[in-house]
TrEMBL record:
Belongs to the UPF0161 family. It is a peripheral membrane protein. It is found in: Cell membrane. Could be involved in insertion of integral membrane proteins into the membrane. Its main location: membrane. It comes from the Bacteria. GO terms for cellular component: plasma membrane. InterPro entries: Membr_insert_effic_factor_YidD. This is Putative membrane protein insertion efficiency factor.
Length: 118
């Protein structure tokens, strides 16, 4: 008897964004800080994020894609939007940033993701 077993390819899905990103010191520091939070404090705080991906996953990807300064501000503002009365639903990190998002005006990062409540 011939038994054919079809195995699905082994896809490894991690918690954080696995896309390519430049491993600059700032990005490594920021992503490492987020990962440290995920491995330590996240378990005590609980799984209460109102967004998908979670706030820490969002911050990790934002830092990896856009660097420590821009991604860090995006992560901070995302956590602030997650509170009571804040936004909820799917809120993805933008692949690119518009030219209005400049280092000397970090408050502008607040508007990223505000209209994604769903």
């Amino acid at each position: 008897m011939s038994h054919e077993h079809q195995h699905a390819p082994s896809l490894r899905h991690g918690r954080n964004w696995a896309g390519p990103w430049p491993k600059t010191p700032g990005r490594l520091l920021g992503a490492g800080f987020v990962r440290l939070y995920q491995l330590t404090l996240s378990g005590f705080i609980g799984n209460s994020c109102r967004h998908m991906p979670t706030c820490s996953e969002y911050a990790y990807e934002a830092i990896a894609r856009h660097g420590l300064w821009s991604g860090g501000w995006m992560g901070v503002f995302r956590v602030l939007r997650c509170g009571p009365g804040g936004t909820h639903g799917i809120d993805r990190v933008p692949e690119t940033l518009a030219s209005r998002y400049v280092w000397y005006a970090p408050w502008r990062y607040w508007s990223i993701g505000k209209n994604t409540a769903g």
